[in-house]
Amino acid sequence: PKQLRHVSRAPDCALSSGQKWLRDSPLSHLRDASRVGASNVYLLRTQHRMHPHISRVVSGFQYAGQLLDGPRPQELAREAPRPGLPEARAVWVVLDECGASERALTHERAGTGRGYQRRFSAQLLMELANAFADGSGEVLAATPYRAQAQLLNTLHATDGQAARFSASTIHRQQGREVDLVFIDTVAAGHPFQALELCAMLNVAASRARRHLFVLASRAEAQQIPQAFFRALHPMRWRDGRLEPVDVTLRNLAPLPQPVQTLGTTIENAAARGALFTDAQVKLFERHFGDGHQLV
Questions:
Q1: Reduced 3-state DSSP string for 123-175
Q2: pLDDT at site 44
């Protein structure tokens, strides 16, 4: 139940009371890993892919700290990082600290209508990928939104230097493993349900073997469950290098509750609060004397 469910194309009216069984995992009653102790349930505790720094993020976020590292991750822990890459293998790139204006941190609706995009984080991601890729490993950029994935692929086709680079939605990446993974949250997962966002972040982070970079603003970090950022090292990209930065977050979002009723869905959404688009911010800043605006 910590993985992404299948994509259902049936309209809501066709699902009616069968929606739970068609759209949810049949193991959804096992979402709380800390309570998995029944004799007929076996929890796969040992992971064989991720550097221990990365598995610590995934374990604390979705598996109640119960994941163990197999022989291969222990070998990865003894490897020195590639030149230019930080010692910390799980990094939060704090966009607010990377020279962006407040407007540049907002997201906007794509012209295609397929999700959201943010040019600043896409350009920064490509800069990082070009700086860190050495040609021997694969680089994956994962995002919840098709529009941002398309923007990243366009930027790479224009001036990308990372030869083995690919960008796509998180839904297309289950089962894959890559040396360097970048996650661009763009709009903190809105409008996906809170539990689905947790599954997306879990899947995306656990694709990484050696290095994980999460690109998010402080405002987004207030929206995403706090357990995800707990084991990430906050850093900023300045003058062609990553350096540590102190970040204190307040009013952090809790882990969402399993959805049983419409009320639970509303409570999960209320806990995340609002994250405004670029168009909304423009309206907030508009003065009454500036002329007419059709809303």
A1: HHHHHHHHHHCCCCCCEEEEECCHHHHHHHHHHHHHHCCCCCEEEEEHHHCCC
A2: 85
Half-sphere exposure at residue 30, Cβ-oriented, CA atoms within 13 angstroms? 15
Tokens 């995934």 correspond to what residue?
A: 58
Residue 179 · residue 210 · CB < 8 Å: yes
pLDDT tens per residue across span 143-170: 999 999 999 999 999 877 767 899 999 9
Contacts of residue 45, Cβ cutoff 8 Å, sequence gap at least 6: 66, 67, 68
Reading the block at residue 40, the tokens are 């007929």
Report the run of H or E that residue 46 belongs to, with start and end.
strand 46-47
Alpha helices (runs of H) in 11-97, residue ranges in sequence order: 12-15, 19-23, 52-62, 71-78
Burial 163-173 (b: 16+ CB within 10 A, else e): eebbbbbbbeb
